[in-house]
TrEMBL record:
The keyword Transport applies. Its main location: membrane. Residues 1-83 form the Condensin complex subunit 1 C-terminal domain. InterPro entries: AP_beta (IPR026739), ARM-like (IPR011989), ARM-type_fold (IPR016024), Cnd1_C (IPR032682). This is Condensin complex subunit 1 C-terminal domain-containing protein. GO terms for cellular component: endomembrane system. It is found in: Endomembrane system. Keywords: Membrane, Protein transport, Transport. Coiled coil: none annotated. One of its GO terms (biological process) is protein transport.
């Protein structure tokens, strides 16, 4: 969606949906979409995507999100936009 509000809200919704039905989230590719939001131009979207992934990771028995050098670079770019 073009609206950052919709994207940041969707990120939170994925985390809530994961609590209800983790298999559905994984099967429908919502985790991949959530990870893609880390590259978003809007820092609030990035922040919500990271928060959602962290929440999902806490409730998962397997690794969901790994911070690589590429991911870190994206996070630092988003942080720069916030200041």
């Amino acid at each position: 969606d073009d609206d950052p509000y919709v994207r940041k809200t969707a990120a939170v919704c994925v985390a809530k949906l994961y609590d209800i039905n983790a298999e559905l989230v994984e099967d429908r590719g919502f985790l991949d979409t959530l990870k893609d939001l880390i590259s978003d131009n809007n820092p609030m979207v990035v922040a919500n995507a990271i928060a959602a992934l962290a929440e999902i990771q806490e409730n998962s028995s397997r690794p969901i999100f790994e911070i690589t050098s590429q991911t870190l670079s994206k996070l630092l770019a988003a942080l720069n936009e916030c200041t």
